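Quick one before lunch.
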Amino acid sequence: MNKSNANKWGERTKAIHAGEFIDPASRASSPNLVMSSTFCPDQVAGFSAHNRSDYQGHIYARVSNPTIKQLGTKLAAMEGAEAAQCYASGMAASHALLAGRLNAGDHLIISDTNYVGTAELVRDSLPRWGIKVTPVDTSDLDLVASVIEPSTKMIWLETPANPIMRLSDIEAIVKLARDKNVRDVVVDSTFATPAATKPLTLGADFVVHSLTKYIGGHGDAMGGAVIGRKQDLDALNLEATVHYGGVLSPFNAWLIMRGAATFPLRMQAHEATAMRVAKFLEQHKKIKSVYYPGLVSHPQHDLAKRQMKNFSGMLSFRTCETGESVASRMIQKFQLIHYAVSLGHHRSLIYWIPTQMLMNSTYRLSHDAEQRYRRFAGDGLFRFSVGIENPEDLCAELDAVL
Ligand SMILES: *Cc1c(COP(=O)(O)O)cnc(C)c1O
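Model of the pyridoxal-5'-phosphate complex:
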């Protein structure tokens, strides 16, 4: 089947058909799950990733595998990109990109509020490798401009940022980076998803996803991806994929591909459900504040409208009562909403994130930056990944514990 016009298809068509084809041997309609770790070349071929001669087929699954390749093609189409590389987890993808692109002596600027795994990796590991790291509030353009140095090679955004749902203006940061000769702008778009934002079309150089979240969507497979230009990914792959070795399991690629097929429809449902829940919480007398980019009350709602075509299913809220006691009632009483970490699943997930604990363990923000964080989070907030259940059932369950 000729799929050369995949980039002209609509989003739902891409999510289903991009990267997939009818298997010529079996005529199977669904993608083949190829678990083989090694492949039998039909001609004499190289044995090192450095020297593959001109053999184009698969040799070893750490280098390439047909099922994973299909998922990569689908993800690239979904982001409007040339290429995508899959990894064993979102963290494996982030590590591959950071370690593969940055050298000792380089400087990284990164959102000071972001996914805790990323925050801990850049604070605890990169400095050991001689990479200087400056965490900063990337929603403030002047602040970002003020910390750019001649050695700044990468600006890493996460928007909306975990767990406070603070946005960063991708287009404005890209413009700043270009003006100041910063080589890479990376966007961790896990919370926004390609249904909301396509950072590469806004000028970013790389997009990172945890496929464990919305794209897989069902809470049963970990995976990650780096998406960008073919030339950049080819340059990255030998070291960051083949030699670091954090490759995705073909089985997980197959599960994530199945999840990805319904991704655009699920995102419509996530947005609609989250909007209903956010409005319910906003008027609830036991709730202090709600942060959802789709609410007019979100401090960056205008940017959200400009940058997000879908407001996604992530929100956070503060309760009037101390969060810890509310959290323990949730653990005891909830039947539908799971009190659990992670996000982007069809089922709803909620977790209490106390500010001081997060500051001590992970963000370690200085006075000013901590004040910026507390402006959203106060002493702590609930991160709520709103699933695609009926909103009235979720609201009833919340009401019973608040
Ligand atoms: C979960 C997550 C990651 C890490 O992904 P894993 O698949 O858990 O390794 C990175 N960034 C964001 C924003 C995430 O939510």
